[in-house]
Design a protein that fits this description.
Chain lengths: ~700, ~220, ~325
Amino acid sequence: MDVPTPAGASRRIGKAERGDACGYDDGEGVRTGVTLLSFLLGCVASLLLLGPAGVALPRRLASAAIYPLTALVCAALGSSALAALLAGRVEDVVLPLGVPWIGAHLHLDALAAFFLTVIGFGGFVASLYAIGYARHEEEPRRVLPFYAPFIAAMALVVLAADAFTFLLAWETMSVTSWALVMAHHERPGNLLAGHVYLVVASMGTLVLLLAFGLLAGTHGHYDFTSIRLAATHRTLAWLVLLLVLVGTGSKAGLVPLHAWLPLAHPAAPSHVSGLMSGIMTKVAIYGFIRIAFDLLGAPVWWWSLPPLVVGALTAVIGLLYAIVENDLKRLLAYSTVENIGIVFLGLGLAMAFRSGGFETAAALALTASLLHVANHATFKSLLFFGAGSVLDATGERDLGRLGGLIHRMPATAVLFLIGTAAISALPPLNGFVSEWLLFQTVLTSPLLAPWLLKFLVPAAGAMLALAAALAAACFVRAYGMAFLGRPRSPQAAGANEVDVWQRLAMALLAAACLLLGVLPGLAVDALRPLLRLVLGTTLPRQATEAWLSLIPLSARAGSYNGLIVLVFMVLAGTSAALLVRTVAARRMRRAPAWDCGFPTASPTTQYTPASFAQPLSHVFGAMAFDTAETVAMPPPGGLGPARFSLRSRDRIWELLYRRLALVVERIATRLNRLQFLTIRKYLSLVFAALVLLLVLLALWQ
Amino acid sequence: MSRLDFDVAHLLAGLMVLVSFLMLYQDRLYSLLNTFALHALALALAVAWQAQIQDAPHLYITAAIALLFKAMIIPYALHRLIQRLGIHREVEPVAGLGITMVLGLALVALSISVMLPVTAAAGTLAREDLAFALSVVLLGLLMMITRRNAVSQVVGFMSLENGLILAATGARGMPLVVEISVAFSILIAFIVIGIFLFRIRERFDTVDVAALDRFRGDRR
Amino acid sequence: MIGPYIVQGVQMCLVLVAAPLLTGLVRKAKARLQRRRGADVLQPYRDLLRLIRKETVIAENASWLFRVAPYLIFAATWVAAALVPTFATFLPFSWAADLIAIVGLLATARFFLSLAGLDIGTSFGGIGASREVMIAAVAEPAMLMIVFTLALHAHATQLSTIAQALGLPAVGVQVSLALVLVALILVALAENARIPVDNPATHLELTMVHEAMVLEYSGRHLAMIELATMLKLLLYISLIGTVFVPFGLARQGAPIAAYAWGMLFYAAKLAAGGVLLAISESAIAKMRVFRVPQFLGAALMLGFLATLLLFVARGS
């Protein structure tokens, strides 16, 4: 099956703009009378309606009804979006809503369909998980009214095709997620989280607003079609790119705009944390791709520098934070920062290759990034749900008070393990596939002409490898502390396995991790219409390769086959186990731990999260956190305790955020005087402003 | 020029860059001096090879000077100096090793990306020689600014000078007179610095240049 | 038609059979260098057999992960080792994983080994696991830079293609390849827990890394882990041999004699690698744990420098 593509493939915009959603009929591949776009809009509308329904329904019924309904609608949304992606469909509609002379432009293409698939699938699994998780929710009415509209807003951002609708949906997404973050505002720290989130989100929207203003130019065309057609000036486009990077990066969590993310994501209920980390950050990435790749047109090589450099730094710095973090959910949030960095690195590479005219390499980079988007959505949701289950079972998020959960929560332990292995980029799971593709892209970098890129890309590749290795370290620590060893608190010792719905949701995600890892060729093929849309070229078909292996460029250059690797590993492992079992003595005895002859009963003698992280923070911490370790040993023969203290400062927080806050406060104090002026002074201010504007107008002409 | 000629020249010049890095990596003064001797040896070999392939016999003299003075006499003299002065044998770096290494790599990348496009018209050999030479010069400067100890600053300075000689030989031979004068100026610089070291030592009982700053009242 | 698959099968079995022999050889050579007589080179086989036949004792709170991990580690390492070309290139499954995927498979093995170290909840397991991940965090970027330079030379990450490209006489004298070789040796020493990074022959030492993680293992589980360790050593020596001494490798569809030659060359490469390892281990001392990042940082630096020099050599 090849994708039917209309002529002029790279820049396809539906020319027929009709005012009626239902009257639109594409005529190609439509089975029912309803086009996909209007069906998707129906899904969005019903999700929006599910919000008020959560308040209207009786308290007892609300949770039990809303989450299954949301799951159904999300499943419909995701599967129809997937169908649209595979078919490479393009549909447009203009609704007579919003600002009168703009209307609400909505547009479905492969790019939107891909992200809608991610949103639909993520929303579906999160809702499934919530069916079980929300039974313990003390205040369901603080969550329910915002939950489904939050998903709807994310879908709407992706479908929007004019600046006004886009920003409206974007703000709705921010505000609903803010409300979800504040659901438990009585807990310590959550107020701060909400406050910081609100500030960063407003800043991000403001910056995006400016970016769209620049894009619209003096003519003021705010729909994407006109923006695309009106060529933006080079320097202006560069400014727009920076603004978009800041605007979407603040939502996605690029360093140094990440500070809100580890505060806000964990504060929300766990299914919402999964959505925010797994899905909402992806919507931000969608925004970047839509504007930087689609609306801005062909890039110049140095445009690729900001996403490349910031992405590489974000990947490493995010993990350095994650490695020393003791709170399980915050650790996951920091690791989200890392993964966003990886995605942006890939996007930067795609821009670099595209500017050099290497369309295939650009397609490879974009594929790697988008695959990582899908992969991260699966394993990060899985991990947040796992963390939620741990929270459910023990009431603890602190790694230092967990331990031994593998005995008490066997199913969660297996599923969480799959998630950690996937996020640590281990073959044959999905995290490895996207990183492998990204490495392959990095290896094609000598093609690039600018010397700076020639050197920067390998350096970014080394950062990527560092991030992958640090991710493995971070998740060995997280899993080892939470699930392995002996319980470090009575709560952990008395944990119980979670509800069947929660396990089902996690099992679905774990299966997705394995499937995407073993059959990556199918996922890469699914992205081909998208590549043709955005870059005007595609990768060779993977599904026709022998044994379904992944061969991005040529078989001699490099190939990977997750399926064969998995089969070989299973065969090798089981045959070894069977052989050993037939040859070996089958006796097995349980005995106290050996521990070099000094086993101690107390679980406090185990390695703690802090001690596990010590070597890594010793090696990397000095750069990132300005750490200083001091050890005070008692004199020889003394019986006093030895003391170890670790001081670390978050440089980004202190240098950027705190200073910024100080400056704002200082300005605010100055401006405070304006509140106590006489009427004459107010009038003179107004008069001065008027004159100034008139002077400006005169100068302008 | 055959392929082998080019490859060996590349190997020797690349070796000099590598040894410059090794000098940044050392944390003992004696091993630093030994590495510097290696650097000079690499220079001598590189220059001798240039003499061979360019058919320029006067370059052999340059190579011999490098071998005699820089690879033997100066390291030996500095060894003696350290012994007699009883200087601390640690190199006292200003920044961490990792940061210094990253800076060094960035400098090499910079010099390559500056030199190669600019010299596009020149022959391959001269181009890469210039790129490597600039790297060696920059690494020498880096060494001078990231070390507190005056001896290691001297060594950094001399490795920088090695880079200059590499550049000069790559560019189709420089006159012997210039060459000898450069060599002597280095020798004189070495002597001056040696005397200078003695003076610092007598006054302040250390060769940490921070002591000078303190004396000037520059202490931060 | 079936021929290549037989060769692939032979290779899989060959690495498995040769791995203990290599370890035995290294131990023997080390013992001779220390003027000891040393155990027989076949001793590792006997050790493994004895371990397998012994009763397995596991700690009271060991979970299923502890019992599954040895097989998983063994499987991942074996698959990785079987995918490195040893005596022949372009085997039928060689395209299933390139060099990056082989590194990934080893990372999988290490991941589960560190988890197994943490499973019992003893302090030694924690020490080992935490140091292992620290070493890996520096070794993996260095390995990637090595892969990058090799890929620049060969325009491929496929090991067979790399071996073929580096076997051509046109390669000549390349300083970047020399740097990569040194870097790869440094990484290999760290990854295999050899001196100067870790001491494979010691227990009860606070500086140990690998042995601390497997401290709680016994019987057949320990046998699996030991075999995986031996396979890993073989893998790295084969890798160095294939990439830097790419001679005597049989091509696909070559006559039987070529395969026999390939085997002979491979045996010679392994023996040479093993003896050199023994010599270096006898000559140098183990370093402090916190010197290891500097040691591997040097490998990273060399890898990057090799890339830079290669760009210069290409002039573009």
